[in-house]
């Protein structure tokens, strides 16, 4: 048996046990992990220093060094608090979603259940291992974890503490050894990506390149997004002040974010539309990639207003129509195009967007409803910044990731994305052949029961 | 552009429009399709005769001929009624699943939406094309349909009628031409299975071999099941009469069904457990594939009771442990094994089952709860036959298929399996940078609103 098959099988075995553990015990082990990580802070710091030293020697960029440093500011304490925060969330497992009377003493229940085995691949931020351990155990899933190689010593030491804690309390909590397995080599990852018999979901947390690569190399469902190409449509009936505020926020609040605006679609019937572009350039330092007709009109309007100065001029480039509307700039750049109607905006977005989050700015309700209905993305907003696409802003307590898949979980994903459901039937000896359709004469009742006060 | 890419793009375009069409208009076109198929019954019957003739000439088996014959008994009328039944179902699109106040005048909604483009591959039963057309349009999805080649003339004629109806009423209903595309060649199917940019879900309806082949050859999510290896566990505290009734039903009511029992796990501490096996053989004509210890004990017990006669003897074979517990017999055969506890039963099932449906028979609540919690299958039953795993029995109105995937849709799938969700935010100009975590000072409210009376 290959080592990756063995790892996957171990995880499956642990997952099958974890599924039966109460929320109380799953959370209890998280508090214990919190305590032991805290107690072992010095050995973790020592390991982290080794990683930082190796990184310094290999000449890693300063910004990446900062991400590696687990003891910078209150990062370590925030990480510890994060474990407790997850432990305190409502149990995502065993939630009743449907109860239906099929017949007397024969009831169908739909109940949430863990997905099973997660393979989580992330980059070098060392605190992520604690976060993922908490998410996996809280949701009753076994986790196989692979972090970036720059943090290998920190990961190894933290995994040692986590696993010895799980082992120490296994008798008490029932959470089994094997619930969290750290793997270290790339070979293991590629091996694991073929274990679709045992692994149920891959969660890549990291760069778009990482996600794209993983999606291309596995048959296991992947929860993640490769691209965040978000668009905003300025309707003819937009409020100019809202338009200025929202586009500036969406582009400049965090340009490297996947929920940042990359494309601005402008309806030229909007009075003074050019003020929005001017605002983006002057206040946001945004370089505008303008379609030729937009450029011509923009320059003309600004000249009429005696506003066409060097600050504005230096922020105009020609759009490359063949690539710029399918591109995540991840910088203070924005592609701009005229569209003549909401319908045309919807068509552009459905063709070019990555199905992440798109917004319309308008005071016209009919246009807004057309947009909200027509856009095929995880998030569709009316008069709000695309930057709201975020698990914490949605109130999910924690964020597992943002998904651009169309099935299972879409958009920002909370713990809900790590559970699925099962159907239970509780009967008293009923058989199908007594009922219509399978040879019998009894009819089904099919009466939905009120689940608001029900527990099973 | 390849023909399959063109087909996929057309479907995507149609799907984007269908998404915006009201339930009234989606259902209206289904009634029109019903009417026109009825009016064109004679041309469809003529085409069906051609298929039957070709099948007879090629020496197709009588049972398959029967499936091809669309005008046998009331099959055609039942098919027509099925279209109306789907039209009358509750709209699966636009259902509000969550409404959360993020701040004053800033509300997050989670709303069901069509998946987008379905590729549905089915075998030769001609009535399926009407059923799938109804399901796709009702759920706001564009459908690409490929049926078995034996019914090609019938499919072609029905597709002609369906598409001319859609075209005739396009102005009236908005449901676009291209919503339903019939493809005829295998080359097109393999081409389409690579169009993951445009196609969102593949729904194979047919043999396990078909499903397995499709799952192996596409990156698009597949809704379906390749195997139905269902087990029943007879606990030490089972009621013997319930056990006899349930196992007989589960094995013999429809042995070719995916929800039929294939494995029986027996706790030898159950008093008179052998009566259940004897009942299966005598009343159900079931051949028992017995593990050696089961066989020895079974023969001994029956001999003690002077019941070991030829009828019983002829229904005993040795189990092949290396294959029979991972096998869908699809016949009056059943693998039988002793397990010593509920825990051991759960472990056997989680290892061998296809995650379809498994049941425990017991009067012991603690054992039942352990089983219900521990089994990792779409359906887990207590004192009921596995044959209840069926969309109609669950009260779904219609059945799209049965899924053994662990994400998106599990078990019997109704129209719900053809929709996903989107998040809408309706605001009044809010930007993220005003809020905590993105540079501002405002806190989110995160108050869930009562959606029971709400429409948006």
From TrEMBL, chains A, B:
Pathway: Amino-acid biosynthesis; L-proline biosynthesis; L-glutamate 5-semialdehyde from L-glutamate: step 2/2
Domain Aldehyde dehydrogenase: 5-270
Enzyme Commission code(s) on record: 1.2.1.41
A GO MF term: NADP binding
Record Pfam families: Aldedh (PF00171)
Reactions accelerated catalytically: L-glutamate 5-semialdehyde + phosphate + NADP(+) = L-glutamyl 5-phosphate + NADPH + H(+)
Keyword Acetylation: no
InterPro entries in the record: Ald_DH/histidinol_DH, Ald_DH_C, Ald_DH_N, Aldehyde_DH_dom, G-glutamylP_reductase_CS, Glu-5-SA_DH, GPR_dom
GO process terms (BP): L-proline biosynthetic process
Record keywords: Amino-acid biosynthesis, NADP, Oxidoreductase, Proline biosynthesis
PROSITE patterns in alphabetical order: PROA (PS01223)
Function text: Catalyzes the NADPH dependent reduction of L-gamma-glutamyl 5-phosphate into L-glutamate 5-semialdehyde and phosphate. The product spontaneously undergoes cyclization to form 1-pyrroline-5-carboxylate.
Family named by the database record: Belongs to the gamma-glutamyl phosphate reductase family.
Protein's UniProt name: glutamate-5-semialdehyde dehydrogenase
Organism lineage string: Eukaryota, Fungi, Dikarya, Ascomycota, Saccharomycotina
């Amino acid at each position: 048996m290959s080592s990756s098959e063995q790892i996957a099988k171990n995880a499956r075995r642990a997952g099958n046990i974890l599924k039966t553990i109460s929320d109380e015990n799953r959370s209890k082990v998280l508090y214990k992990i919190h305590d032991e990580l805290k107690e072992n802070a010095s050995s973790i710091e020592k390991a982290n220093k080794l990683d930082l030293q190796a990184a310094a020697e290999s000449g890693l960029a300063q910004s990446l060094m900062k991400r590696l440093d687990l003891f910078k500011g209150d990062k370590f304490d925030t990480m510890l608090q994060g474990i407790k925060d997850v432990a305190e969330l409502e149990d995502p497992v065993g939630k009743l979603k449907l109860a239906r009377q099929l017949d007397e003493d024969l009831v169908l229940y739909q109940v949430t259940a863990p997905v099973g085995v997660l393979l989580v691949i992330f980059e070098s931020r060392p605190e992520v291992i604690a976060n993922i351990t908490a998410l996996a155990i809280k949701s009753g899933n076994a986790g196989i974890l692979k972090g970036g190689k720059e943090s290998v010593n920190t990961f190894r030491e933290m995994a040692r503490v986590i696993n010895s804690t799980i082992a120490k309390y296994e008798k008490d909590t029932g959470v089994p050894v094997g619930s969290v397995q750290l793997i270290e080599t790339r070979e293991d990852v590629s091996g694991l990506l073929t274990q679709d018999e045992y692994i149920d979901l891959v969660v890549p947390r990291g760069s778009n390149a990482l996600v794209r690569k993983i999606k291309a190399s596995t048959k296991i469902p992947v929860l993640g997004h490769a691209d965040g190409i978000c668009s905003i449509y300025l309707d003819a009936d937009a409020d100019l002040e809202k338009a200025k505020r929202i586009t500036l926020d969406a582009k400049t609040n965090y340009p490297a974010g996947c929920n940042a605006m990359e494309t601005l679609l402008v309806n030229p019937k909007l009075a003074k539309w050019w003020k929005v572009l001017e605002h983006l350039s002057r206040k946001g330092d945004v370089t505008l990639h303008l379609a030729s007709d937009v450029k011509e009109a923009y320059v003309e309007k600004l000249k009429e207003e005696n506003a066409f100065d060097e600050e504005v001029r230096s922020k105009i480039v020609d759009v490359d129509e063949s690539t710029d509307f399918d591109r995540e700039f991840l910088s203070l750049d924005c592609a701009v195009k005229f569209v003549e109607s909401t319908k045309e905006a919807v068509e552009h977005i459905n063709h070019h967007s990555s199905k992440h989050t798109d917004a319309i700015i308008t005071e016209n309700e009919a246009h807004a409803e057309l947009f909200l209905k027509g856009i095929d993305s995880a998030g569709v907003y009316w008069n709000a910044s695309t930057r709201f696409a975020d698990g914490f802003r949605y109130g999910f307590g924690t964020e597992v990731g943002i998904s651009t898949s169309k099935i299972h979980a879409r958009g920002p994903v909370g713990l809900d994305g790590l559970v699925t459901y099962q159907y239970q039937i509780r009967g008293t000896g009923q058989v199908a052949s007594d009922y219509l359709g399978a040879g019998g004469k009894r009819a089904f009742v099919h009466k939905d029961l009120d689940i608001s006060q029900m527990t099973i």
